[in-house]
């Protein structure tokens, strides 16, 4: 039984089809990358899984249960958490208050203090800035906070939408190191990225999506070697 499975997913924005026959699987404990260009449907796929967008047709399973048709708060209650593109923090609340906002599931509230310490260990700068307003943080620190807030809910599946966007190369390396550590701690990760090389290097398996369809899928190391991806996305 796959950890997460999508079968023949179709999603529209109005009359415009965005996802077409999207099928993928994910096993427990994996990092799986979804790569592709802007407008390919990557974010739409995450929103469909998280219940933010209605699925026109197709099926979604999580831990063996159908989840297509569930509302977003019901999906979160199952342990699926999305860290959105653009961070979407509460800028006039402190770092600590933003983190505490993530612990709204009962399971998360019960273990809030322990989870907070693990996040501070993962991102020490958040401890140093815990009383600082989130809006005054650097871009890299805001991304750390957004991921930390997602982790406060103690997810089984963490979905990251373009986490490296706008970050300097050194911060991108630091961020992906943190993603791998989160995974080693038992959190499965679905990673949407415009940086296919970094994403696939950090992942076990990957999918390339174009024009709302899965073009390639398989082992991440094999996907990196495909002539199409190297030519179209890596400039090789």
Walkthrough of the structure:
The protein is α/β, with parallel strands linked by helices. It has two domains: 1-79 and 156-236, 3-Layer(aba) Sandwich (Rossmann fold); 89-154, no CATH class. The chain is 39% helix and 26% strand. It contains eleven helices and ten strands. It has helices at 42-49, 72-78, 95-101, 106-110, 112-122, 124-128, 139-151, 169-184, 196-202, 220-224, 227-233, and strands spanning 4-13, 16-26, 31-35, 57-62, 65-66, 80-83, 157-161, 188-193, 205-210, 213-219. The protein has a six-stranded mixed sheet, with helices on both faces. A four-stranded antiparallel sheet has the order 2-1-4-5, covered by helices on one side. Helix 3 (95-101) runs parallel beside helix 7. It is globular and about 45 Å long. The N and C termini lie far apart (38 Å).
């Amino acid at each position: 039984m796959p950890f997460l499975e999508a079968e023949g997913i179709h999603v529209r924005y109005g009359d415009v089809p965005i996802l077409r026959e999207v099928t993928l699987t994910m096993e427990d404990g994996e990092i799986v990358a979804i790569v592709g260009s802007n407008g390919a449907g990557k974010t739409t796929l995450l929103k469909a899984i998280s219940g933010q967008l209605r699925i026109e047709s197709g099926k979604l399973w999580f831990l063996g249960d159908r989840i297509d048709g569930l509302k977003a708060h019901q999906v979160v209650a199952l342990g699926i958490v999305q860290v959105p593109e653009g961070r979407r923090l509460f800028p006039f609340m402190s770092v600590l208050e933003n983190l505490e906002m993530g612990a709204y599931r009962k399971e998360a509230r019960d273990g809030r203090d322990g989870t907070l310490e693990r996040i501070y260990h993962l991102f020490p700068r958040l401890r140093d800035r815990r009383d600082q307003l989130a809006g005054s943080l650097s871009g890299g620190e805001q991304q750390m906070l957004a991921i930390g807030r997602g982790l406060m809910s103690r997810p089984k599946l963490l979905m990251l939408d373009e986490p490296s966007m706008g970050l300097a190369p050194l911060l991108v390396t630091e961020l992906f190191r943190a993603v791998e550590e989160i995974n080693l701690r038992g959190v499965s990760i679905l990673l949407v990225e415009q940086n296919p090389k970094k994403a696939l290097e950090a992942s076990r398996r990957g999918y390339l999506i174009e024009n709302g369809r899965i073009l390639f899928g398989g082992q991440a190391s094999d996907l990196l070697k495909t002539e199409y991806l190297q030519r179209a996305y890596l400039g090789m």
